[in-house]
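Service request form, structural biology core

Requester: graduate student, group of Dr. S.
Request type: structure prediction, single chain
Budget code: on file
Notes: please return the result as structure tokens.

Sequence provided:
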Amino acid sequence: MKTHSTYIVRPVSWCKWRKSEVEGTLETFEHPPAQDDEAQEVSKPIYEDLTADDLLERCLGSNTQNNNESFISCVWQLAPKHQFAGKKKLSDAACTFNEGFTAILNIMDVMGIIIVLQGQ
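Core staff response, request fulfilled:
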């Protein structure tokens, strides 16, 4: 039934599978291919490359497959490239990239800064 379960069952439908279901002709219904043979022949190797396990494993946890891109994005959020940022700010950005905001909380703890929830 593929993704047809999300479509409304009615005789006048753009979904030919659902229309066939209403008409009671599902046994003889043949779904037309999504692509012609030539397009499928060209796109299949690309699809297989993009869905390779080793590539997808690098994307787990919403991570980018390009480590430099991810690091630079984090640094630019904390130290925008259109503003001057000294060594300390870049170091803080690298800490945040490597350890998350827990690094900032640890630094504040070492400095003796007490964090409380708002309203306490």
